[in-house]
Write the structure tokens for this entry.
Amino acid sequence: MRHALRYPGAAPHGEGALGGELWDAGARAVAEDGDDLVAYFEAPTRSVPEGGTWERVDDRDYVSEYFAGLVAVSVGPLVIAPTHRSVTLDAGQRVLWLDPGMAFGTGHHETTRLVLEIMGEIPLAGARVLDIGAGSGVLAIAADLLGAAEANGIDIDADTIAVARANAALNRSRARFTCGAFDAAEVDGTYDVVVANLIAEAHVDLMSSYARVLRPHAVLVLSGIVDERVDMVEDAVQAPLTLIDRRRDGVWWALRLARSEGGG
């Protein structure tokens, strides 16, 4: 690998919105370097967010170093672990093996952990679950492991879908993944739980679409929302959706909403 894209001062925002865009642009690895966020590419590309500076780097295998540095992380009843790590489980815990490849979602980032934490508190047994922006597949696979009757994921990136399907196979999970944009009119039926780890602006644009794929009394979990945009997302919430919980990890927020019996 010979090219890196450095974003000065972006590390406090971690791998959320910016990191997700970098993965989508073809980054082989995304890592923090002091206060900077650095993405590694095979070659420079124009399809990246503004604000970064390209650098030439040596021939160290930064991708292998990045994955080798991943460790198991415990979130509620689940332990998310790369396949090169050994894990010790407490009573009642289950392991979710995850090799993220070129997809966002390792369980280490605050946005993913917040969703997993909330999912661990929701009665998922027998539920129908949809993950919008599935990335590595971690959330849909987690739903399956936690007892969902059906877990589906959707993502616009075909390479990401391949990673998610491989991770599902690794865990012998029934989670299914489809490549495409989220369109409420094309979704098959309605869901008991919908999760979406996207940027705040996407949540605002999709709020009414979320409501249309939720059953009455269903749960919607939104993450990927940075401090300065959480009010914008909350202001977009309207009937039949109601905000019932909000929680924070660092500069990141997750919102838990419920759909009422009527409306929409």
